[in-house]
Design the sequence.
């Protein structure tokens, strides 16, 4: 059925019903996710999902905007998976967000309060039975070493005579007068009721549960004073205050902190550290130089080889189709597999390359050889792409131009240099810029092939010889020692600005955007 | 009905249906304890817990298995309140970062429970004086020798090197001693120590000595004597562990350091479990190996899930009990950490062999020192870097040893506050 240049598969009420069902299904899933996010206190995600549902319903169930029906899924996905992470990264770059400063302040206070309970120096503990005494939560405690038995409630400790209690085969009291032990089915609700409860022991100590069967004589060492936002050591009187960097620190010695800390805003400090801290600045400069060199050399070599092959196969030779198919194979194989296979081939002792060449090159131990290996592998991975696009672009160049130049006396080299190459570059410059931007952040290759190494740890090197900015940032964020997500976020933002600037400048220089103006 | 009314009705219907999918969260108490483990421990824990389900009365235990130890660590690092486990069976080196970041919760064991373990095992799971889990099994390495190449146990490091040199050509040996298990940092500590370089120093009472490192000159000279031929490696000890296990099983390496989690592979190939520590340069001395424990660690998520006491009960009733460890290790086949389980008749000869090697030359793996970067690099990065620098790059063994000693000393001193 057609009408006004449009072809309809289904029309009318059937189409409307299908649309409503589809929108409702999507809305149901999104609302379910929103509810789950809300339950986990992820209010921003929950709110975004709820707003998405409203927008989808409004867009598809009304005539507010026809173009929006096509754009809204893309806009929502772009917001969720591109804009959202960028905003989050920018926000986190202004935080002290690293190992030891991960959770929120409220959670950190809860954790510190838990750690503020310490076992008494005597190490005294009891076998306990949970239950109720006169309707109140209580424990029936046994010291099997001294045959001491008592009931402890929140307020009182009631000694028991040994003869008045019933013991099990281990000598632990299981029954006592006026004490109603919990049965198995009551333990589930008992966990919340009894855990954290302080059962009376004496003036200084209380009994804290360590499981359902053991109670440990404990004392509270730290007390939180919410009005002053401080912790006080009840034994020494020491005061810990918020140091503004995500920790409670001792007033007299800011180096002494309570753990865990929390992620706290430090504004531009991460950016200042990038410039002022030599441990961050120096490796970063070296890594940046290598990143630019690596991306540039990759584009140069892959384009050169791809173009060379495209020129060679631009003539009607026998078997051209077979050659073309073979040349595209590296592009068809998953890059992860190729990189890992190349990694094995570069192995110093058992690798195929050293065996074939009869050499003993430590490819991944020597910085220069490691860099050469990285460029070579990327050449293998990248040349088919440039071969394909160069082939296509060569077809797009009118042959009359070359013929006219030949008639005017130009030789093949001159024709290539003055006509073919400039036209090719005009067509391919956006792709070359995109390839540069891609390889600027080519994390997979570096991570899988060399891991960013080699790195001379004994000389205190932080970044490896083949680390590019993104792999170096990854190590800062997820390294084996301290994970500094705040600093990594700041470096990520700088990478983004760099790549965007280089790309925009290159696009402007190549005047490609003018074509679209 | 016109389209406008249809549209309005459609919107209402859509929202009514969508809202009806909202399910109010259940208000009933949580009776499930969630345990996370890797691809080896997870299935074995599931078998044990399924066989006897009442480890904590009134509660069920759900074991979630991850595809690898790294995947488990990655998931735990990213775990949130809703998704996180109540107990995670992980490495002892997780304790400092987990405790620092508020993901692990401290617990206090009674004296009776603590007495079931070697007290040094708790060092692995302690951070700033607080314990964060119970020891489950012992991880250690020991050296095994191929009796078809060398018939007797070597008494000194030099004897191994001599045997290698004499057999190299006739037997086509690819190396003399290699690290099949534990890697060039953890597993290779026994070789470092045999030649005179310990990660940290102990006094005669077993306490840590601060401000001191191993003698770099002695160690460097031993490396030159036993591992080098001029400025190049003599081939006895490869700088990487690549291919070690395969080469040993193929009979082209006479000595190998293997991990206690993989002994079954060697028994299956017909090797005798003649396990011993790596001999030192002097007869009667041995290279010390890390005797670390894997731990069942209590997480802060347990309290949020309302199962904190239940999780603690599971730790003491199952993970720290003789019965629990014997049942578990019957499947897992690693040396159990609990003393009663170690003495159990079902413990295999291989497990006993590793235990015996550990008792001769085991030292605790102290994460606070090994993970510290105060010296510029932590132990895990600096140790293999030494082998690369000397055995591959041909740098001076003594000079590089001085750098290594300085790094390890600074790391030990710097990590003191985290004990």
Sequence:
């Amino acid at each position: 059925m057609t009408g006004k240049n449009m072809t309809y598969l289904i029309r009318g009420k059937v189409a409307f019903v299908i649309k409503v069902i589809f929108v409702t299904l999507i809305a149901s899933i999104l609302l379910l996710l929103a509810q789950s996010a809300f339950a986990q206190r992820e209010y921003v995600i929950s709110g975004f999902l709820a707003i998405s549902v409203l927008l989808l319903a409004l867009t598809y169930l009304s005539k507010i905007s026809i173009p929006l029906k096509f754009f809204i899924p893309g806009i929502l996905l772009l917001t969720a998976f591109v804009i959202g992470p960028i905003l989050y990264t920018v926000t986190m770059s202004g935080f002290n967000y690293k190992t030891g400063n991960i959770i929120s302040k409220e959670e950190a206070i809860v954790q510190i309060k838990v750690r503020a309970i310490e076992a008494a120096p005597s190490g005294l503990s009891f076998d306990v039975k949970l239950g109720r005494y006169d309707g109140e939560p209580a424990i029936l405690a046994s010291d099997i070493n001294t045959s001491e038995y008592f009931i402890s409630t929140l307020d009182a400790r009631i000694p028991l005579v040994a003869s008045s209690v019933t013991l099990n085969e281990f000598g632990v009291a299981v029954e006592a007068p006026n004490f109603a032990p919990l049965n198995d089915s009551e333990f589930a609700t008992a966990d919340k009721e009894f855990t954290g409860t302080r059962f009376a022991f004496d003036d200084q100590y209380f009994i804290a549960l360590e499981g359902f069967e053991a109670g440990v004589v404990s004392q509270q060492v730290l007390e939180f004073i919410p009005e002053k936002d401080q912790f006080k050591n009840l034994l020494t009187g020491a005061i810990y205050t918020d140091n503004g960097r995500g920790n409670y620190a001792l007033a007299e010695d800011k180096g002494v902190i309570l753990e865990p800390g929390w992620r706290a805003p430090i504004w531009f400090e991460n950016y200042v550290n990038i410039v002022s801290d030599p441990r961050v600045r120096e490796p970063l400069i070296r890594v940046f130089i290598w990143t630019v060199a690596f991306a540039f050399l990759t584009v140069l070599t892959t384009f050169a080889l791809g173009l060379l092959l495209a020129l060679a196969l631009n003539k009607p030779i026998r078997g051209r189709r077979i050659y073309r198919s073979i040349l595209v194979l590296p592009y068809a194989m998953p890059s992860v597999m190729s990189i890992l296979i190349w990694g094995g081939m570069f192995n110093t002792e058992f690798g195929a390359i050293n065996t074939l060449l009869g050499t003993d090159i430590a490819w991944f131990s020597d910085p220069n050889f490691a860099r050469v290996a990285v460029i070579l592998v990327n050449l293998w991975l990248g040349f088919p792409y440039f071969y394909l696009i160069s082939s296509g672009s060569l077809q797009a160049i009118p042959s009359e131009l070359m013929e006219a130049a030949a008639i005017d006396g130009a030789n093949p080299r001159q024709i290539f240099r003055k006509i073919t190459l400039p036209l090719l570059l005009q067509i391919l410059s956006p792709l070359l810029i995109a390839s540069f931007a891609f390889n600027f952040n080519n994390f997979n290759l570096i991570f899988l092939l060399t891991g960013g190494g080699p790195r001379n740890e004994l000389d205190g090197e932080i970044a490896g010889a083949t680390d590019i900015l993104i792999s170096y940032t990854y190590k800062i964020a997820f390294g084996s020692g301290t994970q500094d997500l705040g600093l990594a976020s700041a470096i990520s933002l700088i990478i983004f600005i760099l790549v965007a600037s280089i790309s925009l400048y290159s696009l402007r220089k190549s005047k490609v955007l003018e074509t679209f103006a | 009905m016109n389209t406008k009314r249809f549209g309005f009705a459609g919107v209402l219907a859509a929202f009514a249906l969508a809202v009806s999918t909202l399910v109010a969260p259940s208000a009933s108490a949580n009776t499930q304890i969630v345990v996370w483990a890797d691809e080896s421990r997870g299935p074995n824990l599931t078998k044990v817990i399924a066989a006897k389900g009442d480890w904590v009365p009134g509660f069920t235990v759900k074991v979630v298995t991850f595809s690898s130890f790294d995947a488990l660590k990655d998931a735990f690092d990213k775990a949130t309140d809703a998704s996180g486990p109540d107990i995670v069976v992980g490495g002892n080196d997780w304790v400092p970062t987990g405790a620092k970041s508020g993901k692990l919760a401290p617990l206090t064991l009674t004296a009776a429970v603590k007495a079931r373990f070697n007290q040094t095992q708790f060092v692995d799971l302690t951070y700033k004086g607080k314990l964060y889990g119970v020891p489950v099994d012992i991880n250690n390495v020991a050296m095994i020798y191929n009796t078809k190449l060398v018939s007797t146990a070597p008494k000194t490091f030099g004897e191994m090197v001599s045997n290698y040199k004499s057999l190299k050509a006739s037997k086509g040996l690819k190396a003399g001693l290699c690290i099949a298990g534990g890697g060039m940092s953890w597993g290779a500590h026994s070789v470092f120590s045999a030649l005179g370089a310990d990660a940290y120093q102990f006094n005669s009472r077993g306490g840590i000595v601060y401000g001191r490192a191993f003698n770099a000159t002695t160690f460097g000279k031993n490396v030159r004597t036993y591992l080098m031929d001029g400025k190049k490696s003599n081939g006895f000890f490869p700088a990487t562990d690549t291919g070690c296990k395969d080469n040993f099983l193929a009979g082209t390496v006479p000595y190998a350091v293997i991990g206690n989690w993989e002994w079954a592979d060697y028994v299956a190939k017909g090797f005798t479990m003649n396990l011993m520590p790596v001999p030192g340069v002097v007869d009667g001395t041995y290279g010390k190996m890390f005797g670390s424990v894997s731990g069942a660690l209590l997480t802060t998520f347990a309290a949020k899930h309302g199962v904190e006491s239940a999780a603690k009960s599971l730790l003491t009733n199952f993970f720290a009990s003789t019965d629990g460890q014997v049942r578990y290790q019957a499947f897992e086949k690693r040396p159990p950490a609990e003393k009663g389980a170690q003495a159990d008749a079902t413990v295999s000869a291989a497990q006993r062999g590793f235990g015996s090697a550990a008792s001769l030359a085991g030292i605790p793996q102290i994460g606070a020192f090994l993970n510290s970067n105060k010296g510029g690099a932590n132990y895990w990065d600096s140790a293999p870097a030494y082998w690369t620098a000397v055995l591959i790059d041909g740098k001076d063994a003594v000079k590089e040893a001085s750098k290594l000693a300085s790094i390890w000393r600074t790391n030990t001193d710097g990590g003191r506050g985290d004990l």
About this structure: Residues 275-516 of chain A form a domain with the MetI-like fold fold (CATH 1.10.3720.10). The mean pLDDT of chain A is 90. Chain A is about 55% helix and 15% strand.
